[in-house]
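ASSEMBLY PREDICTION REQUEST
Request ID: AP-0331
Submitted by: J.K., bench scientist
Number of chains: two
Total residues: 900
Priority: normal
Notes: Please return the full assembly, not individual chains.
Input sequences:
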Amino acid sequence: MFEYDLAVIGGGPAGLAAAISAYENGIKSIVVIERDVEPGGILNQCIHHGFGLHRFSQELTGPEYATRFIKRLKETEAVLLTGTMVLKLTSDKRITCVNKSSGLFTIKAKAVILAMGCRERNRGPIGLPGDRGSGIFSAGSAQRYINIDGYMVGKKAVILGSGDIGLIMARRMTLEGAKVLAVAEIMPHSNGLSRNIAQCLDDFGIPLYLSHTVTEVTGKSRLERVVISKVDSDFMPIPGTQKGFECDTLLLSVGLIPENELTREAGVLIDDRTNGAVVYDDMQTETEGIFACGNVLHVHDLVDFVSAESEKAGKNAALYITNECRSHNKDAAIHISNGNGVSYTVPQKFLPSRIEKGLEVYFRVRTKSEKSLIEVRDEKGIVATYKREFLLPAEMEKLVIPKKLLENSKGNLTISIKER
Amino acid sequence: MYDVTIIGAGICGASVAYFLSQKNIRLCVIDKETDVSMGTTKANSAIVHAGYDPEPGTLMARLNVRGSEMIERLAPKLSVPYKQIGSLVLAFDERDMQTVRRLYERGIKNNVKGLEILTAEETLSKEPNITKSIKGALYAPTAAIVSPWELCIALCEVAAKNGCEFFLENEVKAIDSGSDCFEIKTNERKIRSRYVINATGVHADSICKMAGSCDFSMLPSKGQYFLLDKSQGDLVRHVLFQCPSEDSKGVLVSPTTAGNLIVGPNAERSNTPEDTSTTRSGLDHVAQIASKTTDKLNYKENVRNFSGLRAVSTREDFIIEPSSFSKRFINVAGIKSPGLSAAPAIAEYVLGLLEDAGLEADCKESFSQGRRHIVFAELSDEEKHKLIKVNPLFGNVICRCNTVTEGEIVQVLRSPLPPRTLDGVKRRAGTGMGRCQGGFCSPRVHEIISRETGIPFEQVELDKKGSYIVANDFSNKSKD
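STATUS: Completed
Returned structure:
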């Protein structure tokens, strides 16, 4: 058995930032466990630019962004285990791993940071009917085939879902010479960043069909044809609105799911709204000494925010270890719940006593709105309000509620959206 | 010249091949697909039925009970996933209870062991998640779940190891009857054979007609399914059937050997023997009927839908008999449910028919009957460690959802009947069968297939012939 102060599961953007931050906050005995042969996670296949605008005020590609963190990690004493898969995590922070050189081994750590990222939702959960030939890819798999393996996946494509990966892939396919015939989105609004709609669809004249979904898939060997239909407000296809596209490729960009199988097995409490762990303001889960950050906690739009969140997790894990793993007083925690128009908040709980300047809360809204008011209430009434010109479900919102406003608040907090 | 040629590498063809490969004869199997187990065998409820269902005295009744006993013995020998979890036929009202009593009587006549009629309380204590208004159930402890394609593959692998030749991607185009042999023409070759076994599932009538006349027709019936994630696999503990009624044959809810939950099928007449598409309306219908069994089915955890064709024919019973034109051309047709359960017994029966038709064959002295198949995820920590030390490829996890290692993928690619497609590897090693459905591991498995088989990367296919994955000719960028 190997012992470390801190074990970080996942060597993508979240794991890298968390490990570096823990190191910079005084922890030297760190192991980062990565299943791929290289660290960097999904960034390695994201060769488009646009990463790091917030953090570095530069437009970097995914690999460039990752490299900055990988370089920094390699300057530390942290141990990076690549090609290593975690098979099991227990609540007492024992981690069972396998790799080719060491076989099966156990790591025991004082604190664990979960940074496993997320996976793509596929055909099953969206119940896409039809034939099951080849040519139907999740957008990320297609991206890997094109950007890592160097093979095109098809010549004529329809994309279902307007999440960011789908939009990026619409442009990527086009640049590689394929024809993207349509992007269909079941919601009345896009699920991607506005800048991606502009740069990946509008710039290339790719039509976006809002309130549309795929209703027929034909092709027993290879995909031959896809039919999309308009949907009503209950997302049911409206008869007579079918549009057919002859195509050999269907890319699915229909959502990301935090990869929490290890988390669940360890008995860590999961929030149904985020599909990630319930965390406190220090990114600690309900299981003491286990922290979570990045897309395994909730799906982010921008890696810049993943890095920032993960640094917070790294710093607080370091603090937990230096404080001899003292538990925090859960009973004093205040809950944050989602009110009208808000689908979730992260963190879900906080301890007022340890807020330094303000409490950072990330959340998403349910529907698109303009000239809105974000209202934070406690049991007595309004604690704070924030004006926003635009709110989009696809764009994560962040609030920093000042400490002094929280000092006088009473009971649990609710965040909701109002018209102005 | 072959002694026996089996057309069709589904569960029936595979079972016959397995038993015949124990004999000193020249034997081959032909199938039009890229792999064995590609028809009904890979798309059904994956149940080994206890045998109370078929009408007493029918071939179905006889071969079901015998076959299910044989599978119980065969599965461990062949490293095939099999669990005898028992089944319940649920009764929701008094009319259902009458059906349950009728099935019980029938089961007794068919020699099914251990049948019991349970009260509502007994049923609920066995299955706490089912609808509370249950009246009772028929309990059949000998019913089991199995991985049907793995059983088929294992039987074929053992046959191949013992000298049976397999000609895949060989579609039969014509069959000429000679005085002492048949000549089978495929898209690729001519095969002369003294005996022919027609085990072609939903195509049995058209194949039979190629050789002579045919006195039955196939009426394929399509059934659609949901396969829910392993997170839902313990919702129920037994195979749960509903009572068949006039308007519906009922839908089953059952765990699978891989730990998933299967829900289905409906029954709809299929227009073609190739139509395995799923439809929104068909799946909605399945979900609606299944809700009678339990309201706890979480379709958000659905990982895959599929549909399969039942080889229903114009006759009530299985058709396992010499054709009207030759004793040496034997039809194994109309093998609908409980065909999977009966398959090994069907093979035994076919061997008898071959003998009747004059096939003389001694048993081989050296028949290699077992099959070793390592499943990394099922090993203890110590065994895992030892295995990686012997072969480091077992330390490289490729499929994260099902913890399938590179070692297992290489193992199946070097098996006696190696797959050539992504789904071929999937059926043997379990890659891409988990919740992400290959989203992560497909490109990686793709690479390993190409490396191990020498098939160029761009020519590796998903499953059926023509199911290419990467566009192989992309040098001419489309300009339209």
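REVIEWER COMMENTS: Chain A has a mean pLDDT of 95.
SIGN-OFF: pending second reviewer
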